[in-house]
Structure formats: C-alpha cells, structure tokens
Design goal:
The protein is α+β, with helices and mostly antiparallel strands. It is built from 13 helices and four strands.
C-alpha cells in the first residue's frame, strides 16, 4: 500500500470512528431522555395521590358589598368546625371563599366534609340577597394499603378501592392466556414447521403481520358485533327464547376479544423464535432417528422457548393494559361484586364451585376503573385514579421483568 493510499485509509478510519462515537452519544442521550421522561411521569402521578380536601363557597350573580360579605363570613365562622375563611377574587371580580376546617380525625362519630357542607347549606338559607353555592371534597391522604382490598364507592370516594379491578384483570388475563397461547403457539408451529412455502402460506403470514398492527378498538367492535350482539342476544335455541351461548359483557367475551387481539402477536413472536433455531439441530435430530414431532417437541420448542415466552408475556401485558375493546363490548366501570364472588385466594379453596361462575360474570378491569375515576369531576377520584395508575404500572413492570428474567435464564442454556 502506498503512503498516499495509507494516509487516505487512516483519514477514513478516523472519520468512521468519529461517526461511531457521535452515534453512541446520540443513543446515550436518547436513553437518558427516555428515563427522565418516565421519571417525570411517575413523579407527576405520585404527587396526585394526595388530596387535601376542603370546602369552597362560590358567590353567584351580582357580587355583594363589603358589609354583606362580612355577614356571610361571620355566618360561616359560626360553625363549630370552621376556623378560618379565606377570600379570593379572580380577574372577573367573582369572589370565592375557601374554608379552613379544624382537625376532624379524633371526632367521634366521624365527621365528613360533606356533613359540614350540608349544615352550612342549611345555615346559609337564612341569608337574603346573596346567591351562593357550596362545594366540598374529602381528603385522600397518600397511599393506603386498604385501597387494594376495598370495593369502589361513589358515595364515599375517599374510601374507594380497586379490589374489583384487580380480580377482574386477573381472571381476564388468565382466561385470555388459556385461549390465545395454545392457539397462537400451535398455529406458529404449523406455519413454520409443517406448512410449505407456497403462496397460500405466504399470504397467511403477511396477513398475520398486518393483523398485529390493527388498532385494538377494531377488535372491540368485532367482539361487540359477533360475541355480544349475535351470540349473546340473537342466537337462540330453535323455537325457544334460550340463548345458545350465554355471552354478553362477561369475562368470557372479554377474553375471546383480547385473545383475537394478541393472537397475531403471539404467532409472529413464536415464528421468529422458531426461525432463530439453527437448521443443524433439526437435521441432527432427524439423523438420529427422531420423528418430526419428536424433533419439534424435544429440540425446537425448548430451544425457542426464550423468544416464545417473551412474546407471550409481552402480549399478555398488552392485553392487561387494553381499555378500548373492553369499553366497546359494554364492560362497566362499577360493579358490585368480584367475578364469582371470589375476593381472596382462600375463597377459591373454600368455594371451588364458584370458579364455574367466573367466565359468565360481569367484571371491571384496572384500566376501566382508572378510566372511570379519571372521567369523574370530583377531585377525590383524581387521587384514586393516580393510585390505580401506580398499581397498573407496578403490575405491568412486574410482568415485563418476568419476561426478561425468563429470556435471560433460558438463553444461558443455549449452546450456539
């Protein structure tokens, strides 16, 4: 190599190294930016878990004079639990009064802000010439472990819990897994190991890849039209009014809908995992006298298990976080009981016959409950929605961590 050629080669090599360092720096910045955004999101949710509560008085219509305002404030301060009245005037001149309430934690029987509001409403009836409205909200003090074991409540929002959402999500994901995993893995094994490479197989694989990207609400509309409306209401035994299949807004309907949603994902993930297994393993197994099924069962599936398990768990985590298809099939955000009236794992042992009622029972899921609370205008439910989001995030992060652990564990056993 001449000196000129060598110098050009060294210059090009340095340029490539500089480009590589720049690319590595960009990737590092993007990673840190993503982590910071996630941290900001978690902090913004966590700070909304607390709600101080309070009582507010809004003056309507023409604003009263100073003397009348003093009379209103004196009337409000005459209540035994009101210790201070804070006045606030907005840019339009509208006046609002914010009331400081004393410590109610040691009072027996317990006194709620709603009770004080009702008493103030009765006192303010004595006032003439002043139009006002009084609003109250109950305090929600940080994280409460009882939140996981209580039922949702609209009358006492500060005491609402997410027990129904937790059990609804558990049964929904379990039933979805029982339907989708065998079908998805079986279909992938057939397409990858048994089906030929003809045009029919190529069309099926292309459609599966496209179905994996279809919006989830489309599956919800399909589940509503076919499972809820047709099988649940129109398909009857001949000559009777008895439903052929007891489907409606039940766990079974939700599981079938979500199974359709994640089935293409599981099939594609399993296919990719099976493709990653070297053909030499198949050839060696057949050369030693194993049949096609024995090769698949004892060689290919164990070798592809890390990719299969990762794809399945990630698909189930997506099913757990879905809201649109569940809303479309008519699932309510508030139900009175858990599916099968099972509130603890011990209830399964005490009443095993209740398991038969679970697939045909109404339910609510974690995302549905969070959606219902977030759409409520009362500030207590904003704090409850933040609690629910934290529970859902913990569950999803746990599921994804399990997927990573399974993948890393079985990848260590691979010999190629």
């Amino acid at each position: 190599m001449s000196l000129v050629a060598k110098s050009e080669y060294d210059a090009l090599l340095k340029k490539r190294h500089r480009a590589s360092k720049v690319f590595a720096s960009v990737c590092r910045v993007c990673t840190w930016a993503a982590l910071i955004i996630l941290l900001v999101l978690l902090i913004s949710i966590a700070v909304r878990v607390n709600h101080e509560g309070g009582i507010s008085v809004y003056l309507d219509g023409d604003m009263p004079g100073e003397a009348k305002l003093a009379e209103v404030e004196a009337l409000l301060l005459s209540h035994e639990h009101i210790i201070r009245v804070n006045r606030d005037t907005d840019q339009s001149g509208n006046i609002s009064l914010y009331l400081d309430v004393g410590d109610l934690s040691e009072i027996e029987p317990p006194v709620r802000y709603e009770d004080i509001k009702c008493e103030l409403d009765e006192q303010c009836l004595e006032l003439e010439g002043v139009a006002m409205s009084i609003d109250s909200s109950e305090p929600v003090n940080g994280w409460d472990w009882g939140f996981l074991t209580r039922y949702p409540s609209t009358l006492y929002p500060e005491k609402a819990g997410i027990l129904i959402g937790i059990w609804g999500s558990i049964w929904l994901v379990l039933l979805t897994a029982m339907i989708a995993i065998p079908l998805g893995v079986g279909a992938a094994v057939y397409l990858e190991e048994y089906a030929g490479s003809g045009w029919v197989t190529r069309i099926i694989k292309l459609n599966l890849a496209n179905l994996a990207g279809v919006p989830s609400i489309v599956y919800g509309i399909l589940g509503f039209a076919v499972l809820v409306r047709f099988f649940g209401k129109k398909l009857m035994f001949p000559g009777t009014d008895i439903q052929l299949l007891p489907l409606g807004p039940t766990i079974l309907t939700g599981a079938l809908t979500l199974a359709l949603l994640i089935l293409p994902i599981i099939i594609v993930a399993t296919q990719e995992a099976l493709k990653a297994v070297p053909d030499s393993i198949r050839t060696a197994s057949v050369a030693l006298g194993a049949s096609k099924w024995q090769t698949i069962r004892f060689q290919i599936l164990p070798a592809g298990l890390p990719g299969i398990a990762t794809g399945v768990i990630l698909a189930l985590s997506r099913a757990l976080g879905e809201t649109a298809p569940i809303v479309v099939i008519g699932v309510l955000a508030f139900t009175r009981t858990t599916p099968g009236e099972i509130e603890t794992p011990l209830d399964i042992l005490r009443h095993p016959t209740h398991l038969a009622d679970v697939p045909f029972d109404t339910f609510a899921t974690l995302p549905i409950q969070v959606y219902g609370w977030a759409s409520d205008s009362r500030p207590e439910f904003t704090a409850q929605a933040a609690r629910g989001i934290l529970v859902l995030l913990v569950v999803l992060l746990t599921i994804n961590s399990v997927a990573i652990y399974i993948r890393n564990k079985y990848q260590k056993k691979l010999m190629w």
